Amino acid sequence: MILMEEKNNLVLKVTETLSKDVGHGIARLDPQSMKALEVGTGDIIEIEGGKKGIAKVMPIQSDLRGMSIIQIDGYTRESSGVTIGENVTVKKIECAKAKKVNLLKINSKYTDTNEDEGTYIGRLIEGLALLKGNKIRANLMGSLFYEFMVESTDPEGAVIINRDTKLKIINSKEQGNFNLRVTYEDIGGLGNEILKIREMIEWPLKHPYLFEKLGIDAPKGVLLHGAPGTGKTLIAKAIANETDSYFVSINGPEIINKYYGESEAKLREIFDKAVKNAPSIIFIDEIDAIAPKREETKGDVEKRVVAQLLTLMDGIRDRGRVMVIGATNIPNSLDPALRRPGRFDREIQIGIPDAKGRMDILNIHTRGMPLGSDVDIKKLSELTGGFVGADLNALCREAAMITVRDAFQGQELSNENQLNEIIFHLNIPMQNFMRALTQ
Ligand code: ADP
Questions:
Q1: pLDDT of 41
Q2: Residue 335 contacts residue 292 (beta carbons within 8 Å)
Q3: How far apart (Å, rounded) are the C-alpha atoms in residues 38 and 270?
Q4: Atom nearest to 327 CA in ligand 1
Q5: Alpha carbons 226 and 223: distance in angstroms, whole number
Q6: How many whole angstroms from 230 Cα to the centroid of ligand 1?
Q7: Is the keyword NADP in the record (predicted)?
Q8: Which residue from 233, 234, 237 has its CB within 8 A of the most atoms of ligand 1, so it is best to mutate?
Q9: Is the CB of residue 290 less than 8 Å from the CB of residue 302?
Q10: Helix 389-408 to helix 430-438 angle, to the nearest 10 degrees?
Q11: Nearest alpha-carbon partner for 105 in 23, 183, 179, 164
C-alpha cells in the first residue's frame, strides 16, 4: 500500500542500500513509488526525515519491490536525518546545474594541495546531487575515498555536479583526524610484513608505557625498502589510520629542491608538528635523496639536512609516540649514521608480490568495480609476473577506462538519464583486462 501524504508526497521506510551505491547519492525506489511521485530514473528527489537530503532516483532491488521501501546509503541517511527502519517523506524536486561548489575536505591531515584536484574530484562526483551542509564522498579506486563537507553552492539550493562545475577543494589544516581510510585490508600480499610492522610501529605508538616498563627502547624509525609502487606509502598511511595517529608525509627530493634554502627549517617544522600532535607518523619517501652517504654527497645542503634529521630524530623525547618511517629503493646508499640504534634501526623489505600476492592486490583493486562474470582474477594474477601493486592498480583502472570508452563510442547522449543508464549498466569483461595488459 502506498501512503500519500499530499499530492506527490510519499512516505517510505528507509533501508540500507547496495555497497556499490555508497557515495553515489542514489535512492532506490519501487516502480510503484516512482509512478506515484512522477519520477523516472535519474530524477532528483528530496528526502525528509529529521533533516532534508536529496538523491537521484534509481530502481530498487527486485526482491524489495512492493514494500514501500527506499534504499539509501549512510551519507544520504545522515543528510536526511534518519536511520534504517525509520520513515521519510519523499517528493520530486527540481535541481539546478551547479556552477560553483566549495568542498571542505574533512578528516584531513594532509596539507598538500594540488591545483588539479578540483577537476579530478569533479570527475569522480559528476552527476551527484547535493545541498549545502551535506557530507559527501568521492570514491577512488577500490575502497579508497575522500570525504567532503559541502561548504557552499552556486546557485543556492539543490544542485547537481556536472562537467562544467567549478569545484574548489579546501584543505583544512586545522580539521585534524585525516585518514584516507587506508586499512590493512587495502594492502595485498604483504601479510608477514604487516605483522612485523605492526609490532614495530603500532605497539610503541599505542602502548609506549609497555616499552618503558619493560626497559626496551621502542623503535623511533623504521626503514621500508623496496621497489617503487610496492605499497610502502600505503603501509604508512594504514598504520596512521589504524593507530589514529597524525600523519605527515614528506618527500626527500622535495625537501631538498622545493624548499631549497629552507630545507632544515622545513624539517624542524614537520618534527615540531608531529611532536605536538603525537601520536604521529612522519613518512619520508625517497629518504635516500635527503640522506645519501655523507662522503658521497657533493652539496653542503644534503650534509646539513642529514645532520638536521639526525638531531631531530635524537631529540624526539616522546619516545615511541613519534615514529619516523623512511622509504627507499636503495638502502645501501643511505648515510650509515641514519641506520644506527635509536634512528632507523629496524628495516623491512617490501618485496615484489608473487602470484598469490598479485591475486590479493587485484581483488582489492577490483573490489568496487562491476566485473563481468568471465573475469578470472587468478588467471590475471598468473599473467602479471613482475607487476607491483601500482602496476596492478593501473591495470584495473585501464580495463575500466577501456570499458567506459567503448560504451560511449558513437553514442549521442541527449540527456543525463541516458548517461546514468549507461554507467549503471557497465560491466568490465575479461577481454578488457587483456586489452589493458597488452597496451
Ligand atoms: P610506494 O610507496 O612503495 O612507491 P605506494 O604505496 O605509493 O608505493 O603504492 C602506489 C599505489 O599502488 C597505491 O596507492 C595502491 O593503489 C597500489 N599498491 C601498491 N602496493 C599495493 C599493495 N601491496 N596492495 C594494494 N595496492 C597496492
A1: 94
A2: yes
A3: 56
A4: 2
A5: 10
A6: 5
A7: no
A8: 234
A9: yes
A10: 110
A11: 179
Among 165, 171, 76, which Cα is nearest to 122's?
165
Say whether pLDDT at 177 is over 80. no
Distance of alpha carbon 338 from alpha carbon 121, whole angstroms: 39
Closest CA to 143 of 238, 59, 16: 238
Residue type, 179: N
Kindly tell me if the per-residue pLDDT of 350 is higher than 80.
yes
Distance, in Å, from the CA atom of 212 to the CA atom of 380, rounded to the nearest integer, reads 48
Query: Cα of 234 to ligand 1 centre, how many Å?
Result: 6
Spatial neighbors of 70 by CB under 8 A, at least 6 apart, are 12, 13, 14, 15, 27, 28, 29, 33, 47, 60, 88, 90
Query: Which pLDDT belongs to residue 78?
Result: 82
Q: Rounded mean pLDDT of 247-254?
A: 89
393 CB within 6 A, ligand 1? yes
Q: Decide if 14 contacts 79 (C-beta within 8 A).
A: no
pLDDT digit string, tens, across residues 368-408: 678 899 999 999 999 999 999 999 999 998 998 888 888 87
H or E, element range at 402: helix 389-408
Residue 286 near residue 328 (C-beta atoms within 8 A): yes
pLDDT tens readout for residues 272-323: 999 999 889 999 999 988 877 656 655 777 778 888 988 998 888 655 589 9
Predicted confidence (pLDDT) at residue 108 exceeds the cutoff of 60: no
- Residues 320 and 202: beta-carbon distance below 8 Å: no
Q: Tell me, using a 6 A CB cutoff, whether residue 232 lines ligand 1.
A: yes
- Give me 309's grid cell: 634529521
Place of cell 514494500: 67
